[in-house]
Amino acid sequence: LAAKGARVLAVVKSDAYGHGLAEVSRALAAEGCRDFAVGTVDEGLILRRSGCAGRILSLLGPVDEAEFEALFQDPGDHGPLVPFLGDFDQIAHLGQVARRMAGTAQVCLKLDTGMSRLGFTTDQVPAALDMLTAIPNVRVALTASHLATADEPGQADYVGEQARAFAASLALVRAAYPGA
Q1: What is the tens place of the pLDDT at every residue in 132-168?
Q2: Which long-range contacts (CB under 8 A, 24 or more apart) does 155-164 make?
Q3: Quick one: pLDDT band at residue 72, thresholds 50, 70, 90?
Q4: What does the pLDDT read at residue 79?
Q5: How far apart are CA 115 and CA 52, in angstroms?
Q6: How far is it, in rounded angstroms, from Cα 82 to Cα 90?
Q7: CA 20 to 30 Å from 142, out of 28, 87, 130, 168?
Q8: How far, in Å, CA of 42 to CA of 171, rounded?
């Protein structure tokens, strides 16, 4: 996939599904993978300490004080640790931590475009962006959603609705954070 020009992100959560987080990530990096997704910030820190130099996304985002603080650690020559943020409480806590931390944290804004499980709905995106842009040392670097029925051929219309909702929200994010 990487040879075809795609930027591959390997999901290696839960100890690479029991196959060994560090070992699997090293093998994937040797094949050209630069980005990795883990379940928790703590698992991302474990992956970083194993020598992984790529960008690491935490799908669940930070859940405790130490994990929020870890987002501001200087990655040195490595890519950042980027958590998904999907609710207002996470943003509020991030703002509290950011006020006393040096450095800049990057985050991924999790959008709910129709799965109805996690993330900000299209109507909530402006308020989420208002909160985030008020935190000077936090930057939205990525935006993501989960397509609820992308693997069901009979649901193409619903996937199209989700794509339109994502595009509308993404336009708002890009206006606030060019390049996100």
Answers
A1: 999 999 999 999 998 888 788 888 898 899 999 999 9
A2: 158/114, 161/113, 161/114, 162/113, 162/114, 163/113
A3: very high
A4: 77
A5: 31
A6: 13
A7: 28
A8: 31
Under 8 Å between Cβ of 105 and 44: no
Closest by CA to 83, choosing from 122, 140, 32, 126, is 140
- For the chain, the helix, strand and coil percentages under 3-state DSSP, each to the nearest 5: 45, 20, 40
Token match 């992984």: residue?
52
Angle, helix 125-133 to helix 156-176, in steps of 10 degrees: 30
Residues 97-131 pLDDT 10s: 999 999 999 999 999 998 777 899 999 999 999 99
Both structure tokens of 45: 């820190």
> What H or E segment, with its residue span, contains residue 48?
helix 41-49
And the tokens for 62? 């930070």
Q: What is the mean pLDDT of residues 58-77?
A: 90
Q: Are 36 and 82 in contact (CB under 8 A)?
A: no
Scan for tokens 């474990």, then name that residue. 46
In sequence order, the β-bridge partners of residue 109 are 85, 143
What would the two tokens of residue 176 be?
């606030």
